[in-house]
Design brief:
Blueprint: E1 2-6, E2 9-12, E3 17-24, E4 33-38, E5 45-50, E6 56-58, E7 66-72, E8 75-80, E9 89-95, E10 99-100, E11 104-109
Parallel strand pairs: 2-11
Antiparallel strand pairs: 1-3, 3-8, 4-5, 4-9, 5-6, 7-8, 9-10, 9-11
Length: about 110
């Protein structure tokens, strides 16, 4: 199973980006869908997760600004609005607490 993350880029503070993650390989669906991020010099941290029942959880730092959504059984997105410089990080998607995407860079300029 491989996860492909995309959608990162450079944006000014207050702007928006949408990240996407698509799973491929011998899997029918991804039940638990998540996004993590790792800021420069920092540790990887959970940003948002969506469970199979649709329940979502967000890091306090992104509540009200980021939204995780299911696109289909093997794809999901992270809509990021009102971005801040502190959101600058490499963003990774993770599926079923097992599979990791390769990461996509998000840089927010002030």
């Amino acid at each position: 199973v491989q996860l492909q993350a995309s959608g990162g880029g450079l944006v000014q503070a207050g702007g928006s980006l949408r990240l996407s993650c698509v799973a491929s390989g011998t899997i029918v669906s991804i039940s638990s869908k998540a996004w993590y991020r790792q800021p420069p010099g920092g540790q990887r941290e959970l940003v948002a997760v969506m469970l199979r029942n649709g329940r979502t959880t967000y890091a306090d730092s992104v509540k009200g600004r980021f939204t995780i959504s299911r696109d289909n059984a093997k794809a999901w997105s992270l809509q990021m609005n009102n971005l801040k410089p502190e959101d600058t990080a490499v963003y990774y998607c993770m599926g079923d607490s097992t599979y990791w995407g390769q990461g996509t860079q998000v840089t927010v300029s002030s």
